[in-house]
Structures are given as C-alpha cells and as structure tokens.
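step: validate -> pass
step: tokenize input -> pass
step: predict -> running
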Amino acid sequence: MALSHALRLLRRHLRPSSALLSSLPGQDRSLPTEKKTAPKWKEKKKAREGCSVLGCSWEERLANVVTPLWRLAYQEQLKVKYESQRKILQILASRLEDLGIAAQKPGGLCCPLQPVVPSPVINGYRNKSTFSVNRGPDGNPKTVGLYVGTGRARNIVCVKANHMENIPSKHKQVAQCYEEFIRRSPLDPCILFHEGGHWRELMVRTTSCGQTMAIITFHPQELGQEALATQKALLKKFFTCGPGRVCDLTSLYFQESTMTRCSHEQSPFQLLHGEPHIFEEVLGLKFRISPDAFFQVNTGGAEVLYQAVRELSQAGGDTVLLDICCGTGTIGLSLAHQVSKIIGIEVVEKAIEDARWNAAFNGISNCEFHSGKAEAVLPQLLSSWEDARPLLAVVNPSRAGLHYRVVRAIRNCKSIQRLLYISCKPEGEAMRNFLELCCPSDPGKKLAGEPFAPTLAIPFDMFPHTVHCELVLLFTR
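step: predict -> pass
step: emit ->
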C-alpha cells in the first residue's frame, strides 16, 4: 500500500509543464493536451496537507508532505526514484523527437540510465534546515517547525519537526531553543508582513566537523535602532548564557529583512556571536561556508557525487574546467589536480569570497572565480575565448535552471564538447535547458553551435525519504 501511494505521488510529481518548450527556437510552444483533471493547485494542496492518510496525526501529515517515501524501506525508495528518473528520460526523448531529433534508445529513453546511487547516510543527512514560525496545531502563533497546508487555502499549520527522519538532532535542538526564546519574548511573530510582528524563520547549518551556525530572520517593522539592539542583545544572551547555550553555536547571525528572501547584499547578515564561518571537509579539502552560500545539503552524498563527476569529466591535464553556478567552489576545486585551470562563476558574492579562500587555504592556484550572474559573465568570457585548450563545462544551477543566454554561450563555443548538467529537479526548468542544448541550430535565435546529445544519466539519492534525486546528465557533441 505504501509503495502504491509512493507511485501515485511520483506520477503527480512528473506531470509535464506546459512551459517546457517556451523558449525553443522555431517550435510550436504547446504540448500535447492531457485529459482534464482537477486543477493542479488542488492536487498540490492535497499533497501539502498530507491528506493521503485520513485521520493521521499532525506529525504523520508533516512527514507525508516533506518526506513522502518515509514509510518505505530504503531499497524500495531507490526503486521508486529509479522509476522517476526513467520517466524523465522518456519525456526528454519524446520532446527531442518532437524537435525532429532521433533520440529514442532502448526502453524509450534518450540515453542509458544507470541505477540510483544510494546516499551513504539515510537519516539526519541534512546539513541545512529552514524552520518557519506560525500557528501550531494548538493555535500558538509562536510555533517553530515546518508547514502543512498552503497559504492559498489559508490552512497553514506549523508542525514541530522533532520526528522528521531527514533532519539531524542538532537542527531540532536549535529549533526547540528558538521556539522557547520567542515564546518568552514580548514581541509578536511576523506571520503576515502587513499584520506586523517581528520573529521570523530560523536557518540552521551544520558540518561534519561538529560546527553549528544559526541564522535568525527578523522583521524590524517600526522599531528604532535602540530597540533592535536590545533584541539582538537578548538573543545573544539566550544562546550564550541562557537555555540556548546547550546548542553550543559556532556562529549566531541576525538578519533584518522586510522581504520573503533577502541576500547579504540587500540586508547584511549581522554576526552576534562566534565565528563568521563554519568549515566542512569534502574529499580531503577544507571548505569555508558563509550564511547564504550554496553547499550540497547532503555532505556524504556530495562526496559520492563529486567523485563521479571526476570520472565522468574525463578531463586531461590540458583541460580548462568551466564551473558554472559554482557556489563555494566545491566541484571545481575537487577536480583541480587533474585539469590545467578552473574558471568558476557564481551570483552570490559571499560564496565567491568563500571559493577564493577555499582555493588559497587548500593550496590551489590554477583557478579564478567570477562574481555575477552567469548570463552576464559567461557570454562575455566565451566571446573572446581564443585558448586552444579543450573546455569542459559543469553546470549546477538552482531549480530555476540556466538562463537562455548561458545555454546559447555554451552552444556557440566550439571548444566545449563535453557538458555535465547536475540538476535536483530535472523535470522542471532543467528540462527546458536540456531541449535548448539539443535542439537544431537556429541563426534567428543566434544559436549557431552544433547541438549536444544526452549520452549518459546517473541519478544520485541526495534526499532520502523524499521523491527527489540529483541527476547528473552527460551531454557530448
């Protein structure tokens, strides 16, 4: 019964988006119509509410929402995920056929698919967790946890995450202490910006070295600087001298934000206590992590992933590696010893500072890192590229995928014959990128370069108990 429920979730998860072909050159932008069903927002609402098990507890409902495969044995989870990736490759093959590209291989796939590589850690694997503040099942608005329900349906309930199998005990401990602090505070939580209130979400980051960083977001509303200073002092006292000292925080950050999400450049992270960074070790290298820098959420899984990228790259000593969306430089620096040069590009400025520090600390000098949007940096970089050395591109974008100008720059650079695309949501915007990389040339779209072809796909289970995988797709031409 649990397996059939997981497969139903999988089918919902893989329903194709009508926007996939929206930016492809010279193509009909509509997809084959599907049988009309209930509006998608209703399906998503049911999934967010965890409605699949009637009469279950709030804890079970939260587990159903965040970790829908939690009832399955791990080997069964891997089977579900393999089926998910197989269907994604079938969809890609079908879309390529629609573009006039003979792409179907045995099984209707666009390329060979290897078995899902299991995570070395199954429970408590997350090194980063974000907890919200809202009304709990008992109605208390100062509950710290994760959401069941949706804002659209106005039925959000914030459920404590103490039972969640993917979250480590340290994260749960910090969340519990933060809840205790805000319940003592006379200030209200900020649930809806226009209704006032101040205490907002908590982010916890940990490393295998035993370090912990906590970042607390606070809406200042109309508070003056003196009142803000008082709240920061109380927060620091609680986590250093009060009940929160049991968390043994390495770093405590405070960010004043009037937006849903806010970068360091928009509103600086203020260090209230401890060290400005925490440190992680991956494949024998040491990496510095800032509050908003990207780092793979499963450290053990990341090591397995990066080792595979090393092998798939087939990079020789004369290869130049383009590490696009490089974060703190983990992928590029892990390949530094086998390539002649690394060029990293990342939009988060603090992550680039970390990448440069990481390179220097690990004694790696054959690298350069550029801060800025990839769609601005990469075309300029490649337009003047005259180096005879082969270029290898590795891209690891967010769920939003790559900007079209990035894909176009890669397509139009003849030196790039091999591309590794790492995606945590290949059925989403990444699918659009796959089609842009493989579609026929179109001078009208300034897409002159030869198309790529998918050659091999390897899924990595970076997110046990969820339906998601990290898919590494090798493209060559």
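step: describe -> Residues 74-98 form the longest helix (25 residues).
step: cleanup -> pass
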